[in-house]
Amino acid sequence: MIDRRSLLAGAAALGAAPALASAAPALARAAKASASPEFPKGFLWGASTAPHQIEGNNTTSDLWYLEHQQPTVFAVPSGDAANSFLMWEQDLDLAHNIGLNTYRFGVEWARIEPAKGQFSQAMIDHYARIVDGCRARGLTPVVTFSHFSAPLWFSAQGGWSNPESADLFARYADKVTRAIGDRIHAAITFNEPNILLLLQNANVPPELWKIQALTLETAARRLGVPRFLSANVAGVDDLPDLQKGLLAAHKAGRAAIKAAAPRLPVGLSLAMMDDQAVGRNSQRDARRQQMYGVWLDVAKGDDFIGVQNYERALWGPNGRLPAPEGALHNWSGAEVWAPSLAGAVRYAHAATGVPILVSEHGVGTEDDAVRAAFIPAALKELKRAIDDGVPVMGYCHWSLVDNFEWVFGYKPKFGLASFDPVTFARTPKPSAAVLGAIARANRV
Ligand code: BGC
149: cis peptide before it, omega within 30°? Predict the structure, then answer.
């Protein structure tokens, strides 16, 4: 089975909405002046999820279809996932009981518009109930509009490579915003639209790209369409079209959300490593440009940027270097290095000037003691970045509960809680108490 994260590694308060961006420098100055052990007042302490990864039975989505091709890049189908479509109230209770004040989740376009132009009021109402359920429990809702999955019909018409895609995304974003835009705290248009650029900058075997392309070709042939393309499964030749389409869709989506809810902060989230230059003539800056360049530029026009960090990358003159000897490793062999979060956050802010929301950060491991130690260690460094003047509005841990890890299936464990595969009962892990205590105290 192809393991994308290990390949990557082995290869070497959001405040009052309208005032968000302008309030950031003042907030930063205040944080610096006091350097109190507390995180800024109103700091968001949350956990993140994505619809396709926890809801289960997302049968009208592109990824569900790809999971069921032969051959497929997916290790197993998503199936019931954590059954969160039915158990969302338990998930909200879980987040609340852990001691968090924020929940980042996604609305699933494939459910909301299961056939082109046919919007489901019932599904829009479903997500509106989750928003209200958050509010009822004191959880601030942060909502992702597109977390890799899309409707099957959309990807079967070329997905983000279809010139119509930006308008279609904007139409969907408008419908969602009209329903929930007045009650959510922030909107993330796209989750990690640059994920495949990270993969492109890893020395992955060409077979990985080939099996992704083959999965898409198989789906296209079965459906009798010329091109099937999804946001996180693509052939290497698809990347220029995919990036162009996602960029246009982010801009169109942002405009649609702003038109429907002018006060709602809008941004996107990026997969960001903590890229470090080693020696002279390091490739670090060139790699950064390839992996994040256009997205950091577009984020300058957003209200905030979501940073999603899981690792650091050491770049020498000839490419990525292995992790230092004795490094701690996650399930896939990638280095676990707690200061990487703060490094990525500092860079994202320096490059964009906008406030930061840590929209994901975590570690895939069966050993929850690693997670329990990793969280406070990373947060100490994050606090130092805040004290140095970086406006960080919140921290959302990936993930609330173990989930479907895309092509790797259910093997990697990222949750603050596990779930029973038969009853779906959630059980918090000890690391949940560690994060909860920090959140309640608003300090590490
Ligand atoms: C994604 C999540 C994923 C996580 C852990 C991020 O790339 O946004 O969907 O589960 O990393 O691999």
Answer: no
Q: In angstroms, what is the span from residue 317 Cα to ligand 1's centroid?
A: 29
Alpha-carbon gap, residue 396 to 306, rounded angstroms: 10
pLDDT in tens, 8-31: 433 333 333 333 444 455 545 554
- Minimum mean pLDDT among 27-31, 52-56, 205-209, 258-262: which range? 27-31
**CA 281–ligand 1 middle distance (angstroms):** 31
SS3 content of the chain, % helix, strand, coil (to 5): 45, 15, 35
Q: Which two tokens stand for residue 411?
A: 């093997």
**Is the CB–ligand 1 distance for residue 192 below 6 Å?**
yes
- CB of 85 within 8 A of CB of 127? no
Structure tokens at 292: 């994040």
Pair 74, 81: CB distance under 8 Å: no
Distances (CA, A) of 304 to 107, 264, 299, 300, 388: 20, 11, 7, 8, 18
Identify the H or E element spanning 274.
Answer: strand 274-277
**CA–CA gap between residue 141 and residue 130 (Å, rounded):** 9
Q: What pLDDT, on a 0 to 100 scale, did the predictor assign at position 26?
A: 53
Residue 145: partners with Cβ closer than 8 Å, 6 or more residues away:
106, 107, 109, 169, 172, 173, 176, 187, 188, 189, 190, 253, 257
pLDDT one-digit tens code per residue, 217-244:
999 999 999 999 999 999 999 999 999 9
